[in-house]
Amino acid sequence: MAVNPTDISLNAVTRKLGSPLYEQVRQGLRELILTNFKDGDRFFTERELIARLKVSQPTVRRAMAELVNEGTLVRGVGKGTFVRKRTKELSVGVITPDVDSSVIFSSIRTISASCARRDYSLHLYYLRHGQSIPDFCKSLHRAPLEERFIIHGASIEESWAIYNELDSRGYRTVLLGGPIPGYPGNSVQEDVTEGVHIAINHLLSLNHRRILFLINEPKEIATISRRLVSIQEFIREKNLTEARIVDCNLPVWQNSFAAAYGKMAEIWAANPRPTAICPVSGAGTWGVLRFLTERQIRVPDEVSLFSFDDLPGGEMVYPSLTALASHPEQVETAMDILWSDNPHPQLVSIPLKLAARESTGPVPPSAA
Fold first, then answer.
1. Are the beta carbons of 92 and 335 closer than 8 angstroms?
2. pLDDT tens digits, residue range 61-86?
3. Torsional class of 140: left (φ above 0), alpha (ψ -120 to 50), beta (otherwise)
4. What are the distances in angstroms from CA 103 to CA 15, 150, 268, 336?
5. Which of 23, 164, 248, 364 has its CB 3.0 to 4.6 Å from that of 259, i.e. a possible disulfide?
6. Is there a cis peptide before residue 20, judged by omega within 30 degrees of 0?
7. DSSP per residue, 42-103
8. DSSP three-state, residue 334
9. Crossing angle of helices 282-294 and 256-268, rounded to 10°
10. Cα(108)–Cα(122) distance, integer angstroms
11. DSSP 8-state secondary structure symbol assigned to residue 221
């Protein structure tokens, strides 16, 4: 049964208005459409909105024009304005930095498989180094009802700017990855703090105390920032006086594999050497493993190696890499939120699990 516009209160929209600006009206009406209208329902006329919202005609006219441009409303000549919620093709856009990241590639593969199961098309949008967010968003051509976006791998500042720009254009988004304090949009994040506890407790159970945490990624990335804070907090909590944090001070957009590999000469020359090494990303773990393998340093007989990312292939190399594995529900939960019409931001934390393999073992007797 079609909704009768006269039966719907506009109080919720009115409360959103700090001043009669078209953008505030547009966002309020969009939320109203998502929660109260079905595809094909007749929408309010300009006159009804002006009278009930107490705003000017230019404000209402521009807000409605924007909703028409983004595909939320359709004008029928001589018939009125109608809600449109159906499209021929539904698309998921993944917005990610244009960097060589195994973590990002692995996530894209998982998102692609989920899209195939749901019969969604997948489009990748790469943010280039130095590109402004408004310029980047000019490459988006599908209507908000046709395409929704997953933001993944960008820095905290970039993620926030992308969200603000897309939200102002009527697009629904989900941030996938680490937590950003105060982030106003939908977010599906790994339980980074619990993951750090799992990693350190696993090494403590093997009697490691000289644990080296290698910060081989830019700290501007939300997941890395949270991991670093959690590591610092847990070191203090457990009074791990022999644990160390070594920061590569890697700038954004630089190679994290090379950063870890290049830092290892300094780390291995230290006295005493660490008995366990934990880079903060999977790429760093591969860099450390390469350094150790080239020098015939045996893992875990001489040093244990722990990966915070369970990258593809980690279980097939020798020694296979002990890692934190993402829960498969992470992407599925993000997809569910992405294609729901719940107007309220959702924050979901997904637990991580330990994949204990060959690269971690007891402290070598010579280092005990």
1. yes
2. 988 988 887 778 888 777 889 998 76
3. beta
4. 42, 15, 26, 22
5. 248
6. no
7. BPPPHHHHHHHHT--HHHHHHHHHHHHHTTSEEEETTTEEEE----S--EEEEEEESS--HH
8. helix
9. 50
10. 10
11. B
**Residue 12 in this model has a pLDDT that exceeds 60:** no
Cα dihedral 232, 233, 235, 239, rounded to 10, equals 140
Contact assessment for residue 82 and residue 43, using Cβ atoms and an 8 Å cutoff = yes
Contact of 81 with 42, CB cutoff 8 Å:
yes
Residue whose entry in the numeric block shows the structure tokens 């292939």: 313
From the number of C-beta atoms within 10 Å of its C-beta (0-12, 13-18, 19+), residue 286 rates as buried
What whole-number percentage of the chain has pLDDT above 70? 93
- As given in the structure block, the two tokens for residue 247 are 């920061």
- Domains of the chain and CATH, by start: 5-83 (1.10.10.10), 91-189+330-352 (3.40.50.2300), 192-326+354-367 (3.40.50.2300)
Considering only CA atoms, which of 171, 173, 138 is closest in space to residue 154? 173
Q: How far is CA 74 from the centre of its chain?
A: 33
**Beta carbons of 123 and 91 less than 8 angstroms apart:** yes
Q: Cα 273 to the chain's mean position, in Å?
A: 35
Please give the distance of CA 42 from its chain centroid, rounded to a whole number: 37
73-76 vs 80-83, strand pairing mode? antiparallel
Amino acid at site 367: A
Give CA–CA dist 165/134, Å, rounded: 7
**pLDDT at position 15 over 50:** no
Burial classification of residue 4, based on how many CB atoms lie within 10 Å of its CB (0-12 exposed, 13-18 middle, 19 or more buried): exposed
Q: How is 136-182 classified by DSSP, letter by letter?
A: HHTT--S-TTTEEEEEES-BHHHHHHHHHHHHHTT--EEEEES--TT
